[in-house]
Amino acid sequence: MLVITKQINDAYEALDSSKTDAARRVGVTGTAFNFWLTGRSTPRDFIRRRMEREYGLDPGSLGVKATDVQGAAA
Fold first, then answer.
1. In this structure, what are the phi and psi dihedrals at residue 52, rounded to the nearest 5 degrees?
2. CATH 3.30.559.10 matches 3-54
3. Crossing angle of helices 3-15 and 30-38, rounded to 10°
4. I need a surface site. Which of 7, 22, 24, 51 has the fewest CB within 10 A?
């Protein structure tokens, strides 16, 4: 599981909204958002920054997309 997947999951759960609503807040499709939640894809840097703003996260908190939980490159 990618670190960013866990971070997005945690942020999404804190929103207490649907995946569709969470995706709309950052201007992406529900499918793209679901892929990030399941670890099948990672958002681009500009989307991650938008997610941090929209979800009230600290800047840079969504981390580096190519790092997994153990710290090895994905």
1. -60, -45
2. no
3. 120
4. 24
